[in-house]
Description:
mainly alpha, 2 domains, four-stranded mixed sheet, globular
Amino acid sequence: MINWIKKNKLEFSLLLIILAVALFLRLYKISGFMTFLGDEGRDVRIVRDLITKGNLVFIGPMTSIGNMYLGPLYYYMMAPALFLSGLNPVGPAIMVALLGVVTVWFTWFVGRNWFGRAAGLIGALLFATSPVAIVYSRSSWNPNPMPFFALLCIWGIYEVWQKKKYFWLPIIGMSFAFALQMHYLGLLLSPVLGIFWLLSLLQIKKDKVKKQIFIRKTFLAILLFLILMSPLALFDLKHQGMNLKAFEAFFSDRQTTINLNPARSDRFLPLISTTVTDLIMANQSILITIVSVLVFLLSILVFVKSKWRTSLKMLFSWIGVALLGLSLYKQHVYIHYLGFIYPAIYLLLGALLGFVITRKGFIIKLLAAISLVLLVFLNLKYSPTFGNPNNQLRRTEQVADLIIKQSNGQPFNLGLIAKQNYDESYRYFLENKHSALEPDENKITNQLFVICEDGDSCQPEGNSQYQIAIFGMAHVVNEWQIDYIKIYRLVHFK
């Protein structure tokens, strides 16, 4: 490594600057910018109990579509970070941010090996400054580590295919299990992995020794994959195949989920537009058609003119399968669904701009340099890092502290009125601070605290929300406000 640094001082210096920028953009005021709502509160409650009580976890969060459960690996990833941070929820968010920086480095590493120095640095720079990548690198949420594990899978199968490094097969098996448990859209990696696994096998079909090693490593990969996925299987055995039935329903009820006929899909072009808008143009809907056509034409040109055809085949397969697969999905495609191709998009941009920049001709180099500067400028101008923090974590803790103070050490029930949130985040702080919160929602105390996130339109008295309705007839005796959140204390009528 030292020898490499001595020989590549400029590249190493530029890489350090890019990684420093990536680190700053992800960690700056992370406790203020991180998301901390019901889902995040649920996750840290589960992981806290794993740490403090030894409660093993066999399933992860439920998916928003299809009522399927993910695996628990993300919870086990969170555990060391939450422990080291003293159960502060910012710990797992920092873990995700650091993994995001590692993914930027990994993008440089893959880009350099596939397309050369310039491509590696350009891809890493665009990834480091990408507003979408930053947003999903500074909160603890299970889809956020997906780019790293997806890139690890693709790099691994490339090494198997091109360099016959079969020790990567078990790593691929584990990485694929992690990717799937971050989000089930990781399934779209399987066609790419399967195709290049088969091509790798066909290359050595006449070499018995290599073939034996290949098959043995493949079986080890499958075994490791199954071990990491086994908690979900155990959960299904205990719950009459609930997850498996949800999968079957998702693929069989195609009215609202997927369209298995690509020819009838009308989502391919809108999906490309979303990809270009969010991942290339910093969420700005400008010149989308022109940029899309330029990227497509440049991709063909680079494939024809460059010596990178092998790497480009892998990259095009990765992006093509992803876009084709997502175009079959009938529901709205959120940008985090594309997490498993974030590195692919920036590797492609790095390859295209790197190819042009290294060509002869001043005008061509100048145009490529201007394009790169404009893309980085857009990324930094619209970077979420320089916006106003949401302060969800701090505000949630302040609400919990107020309730603890006003409860006077007496048992209380808790209710939340919100359009798009639930009370797990508040319960996390109330439990950690050893408040008198009654853990059983069906056990009624003499006072009820209602947190209202809907502003002045909130009406806690007689509200139909379950936690409030079960408390019975009650009236407001106290009211407080923290930012836009109102907190009410209700007691029963005498």
